[in-house]
Amino acid sequence: MLWRSVVGKLWFTILLLVSFVLTILMVALLQSFERFHVNEAEERLINHANMIASIYEGHEDKSEALYMINQYAQALETQIIILIEGEKIWGSDDQEAHQVSLSTLFTNETLSEVFAGEQVVRTEGDFPFVGQGEEEVQSEIMIVGVPLQPEQLNDSAVFMYQSLSTIDSATQETRQIIYFSAGIAIILTTVFAFFLSSRITAPLRKMREVALEVAQGKFKTKIPILTHDEIGQLAIAFNRMGRELNNNIHALNQEKEQLSRILVSMADGVITLDKRGNVVLTNPPAERFIQSWYYEQGSGESSADQIPEALQFLFEKVVSLEKEQVIEFDMQGRSWTILMTPLYDQHVIRGAVAVFRDMTEERRHDKLRKDFIANVSHELRTPISMLQGYSEAIIDDIAASDEEKKEMARIIYDESLRMGRLVNELLDLARMEAGHVELNIETIELAPFMERVVRKFQGFAKEQNIQLELEDERADAWIEVDPDRLDQVLTNLVHNAIRHTNEQGNVTLRVNSYDHGTKFDVSDTGTGIPEEDLPYVFERFYKADKARTRSRGGTGLGLAIAKNIVEAHDGHISVHSKLNEGTEFSFYIPKN
After folding, report:
1. Are 190 and 215 in contact (CB under 8 A)?
2. What are the beta bridge partners of residue 586?
């Protein structure tokens, strides 16, 4: 049945809609055209009446004026009445002896207003006509009136009237044109509706067939079935397809979200490669690894087609051997362990996944642990050996004289003091690193404080034949610090600078005060620090030249203690050095 098909429903709907719109449009157009014709006729009558009034008022010879009006009226299809002082002096309808009753001109409420002054009146309606002694009513008459010399004459006006039948004929022609256009529109709408319906129904049938094919994959979506036409059949197909689609999509989204959260939250980097070795998936740590590699290669922009050579070699090895591989990779001063495992599509390798683990901290902690044990053992072995040796010498009475015994006792005492200093510094450093640093903040004047520090080392510097200088640009500056702790930091830095500077060298202590803090610089022209040792300068037991340092009595804990003291003051410390050119330690302590 046509009604049960989409074509019939669309056709009927479109046809009904177009018919409704055309009906409203026709009514509006007919009313508009009818009003237009009426207004046009009124304006035309008013123009003619004004012209006749102008002719009558413009001639002193009224007979000549009436003659010209008569000539003018013969060219018009309207009737004219001229009233002077309430009397009709001329009318174009005299020849027909069929005219509007004069009493109507005075009794009609609208027309009588023309005698009151300079006002043009117009009206439409049914008016009584007089002819051959009989009176009859003419329907649909349009009358306009124009006053004549209202300042000089009373009850004087020019009236023009005509039947509206002429307007009705024009309106009828317009109505026929509109009806004809509406009929053509209905015919075209019918053709267009059938054409559009067939164009919509065809793809719907195709979509239904495709949906039934997809339904074999067990997809699922719930659609309410409201009709039994093609759209209803499509809804049935989508219901069959959607049931499985909902479950599958839900499971895939859960797995995808779970995998995404795992990858993002992992501390290790993960990179997935396809069978061609191109990057498919990365997480933030892996992206940082690749960016570091690009920076090391000097490449400004990253490219998805490029991976580190070590990673490419490892991928080729994994694909060829079809088993996981592990390598260690050093880049930008950091150590990475890379584990790559092949990915399979059934029995064919479809790519690989690489896991990056940053082992820098583990390697560093392992090195620090080993160095700590070695350094503590190294520092304690010599004084213990000396204590043991000289004690045995005293016990075995090897020292013959009292002076020799005193000398041995002095050595034992000095070595015990050295061991005590080492243990105390280790305890202080442990407390500082644990956050148990007690600061006694005082406001001190900077210039006298720095001069005391320099005077303390002037004797030691002269013994080493080294020039020690103080540069203080703002001698009147004040600073809020723990003076004992600041003295400990400067003592460590200045003492190290003198110990590692050769004769005829210079050591400079520089102080710069700013609005937000104070900067201290200790520079020397000594042996400098190797570049590879700079990252470990502030570690415990660091010694660039352990043999030389030991001979000068250092323990390797001073810089570590100095760093913790500066950081306890919310400051920071740094070092710059070139081998055989000198070293500069700088630390900054902010105000408040």
Report:
1. no
2. 521, 574
Q: What is the 3-state secondary structure (H, E, C) of 121-181?
A: EEEEEEEEEEECCEEEEEEEEEEEEEECCCCCCCCCEEEEEEECHHHHHHHHHHHHHHHHH
Mean pLDDT value across the chain: 77
Separation CA 256–CA 313 (nearest Å) = 30
**pLDDT over 70 percentage in the chain:** 78
CA 198 to chain centre: 46
pLDDT tens, position by position, 47-101:
888 888 787 777 777 777 777 877 777 777 777 888 777 777 777 765 444 577 7
> Reading across the β-sheet that carries 279-282, which strands appear in turn?
279-282, 269-274, 348-358, 334-345, 325-331
| 279-282 and 269-274 strand pairing | antiparallel
Task: Report strand pairing: 517-524 vs 506-513.
Answer: antiparallel
- C-alpha to C-alpha distance for 91 and 81, rounded to whole angstroms: 4
CA angle 261, 263, 264 (to 5 degrees): 65
Q: How far apart are CA 379 and CA 375, in angstroms?
A: 6
As a whole number of Å, the CA-based R_g of the chain is 57
Look-up of token digits 């026709």: 26
Phi, psi of 351 (to 5 degrees): 155, -160
CB-CB contact of 55 with 65 (8 Å)? yes
pTM of the full predicted structure? Answer: 0.39
Distance CA 346, CA 362 (A): 38
The answer to whether 561 and 432 have CB atoms below 8 angstroms apart is yes
What DSSP string runs through 435-473?
T------EEEEHHHHHHHHHHHHHHHHHHTT-EEEEEES
> Which two three-digit tokens encode residue 232?
């209803």
* Cα(141)–Cα(164) distance, integer angstroms: 6
Long-range contacts of 343-347 (CB under 8 A, 24+ apart): 343/272
In Å, how far are 3, 10, 186, 190, 197 from 19, measured between CA atoms?
A: 19, 14, 7, 11, 18
pLDDT in the model for residue 548: 39
Residue with tokens 């002076």: 403
Asked if 73 contacts 158 with a C-beta cutoff of 8 angstroms, the reply is no
Query: How large is the greatest C-alpha to C-alpha distance in the chain, in angstroms?
Result: 183
Helix (H) or strand (E) holding 508, with range, is: strand 506-513
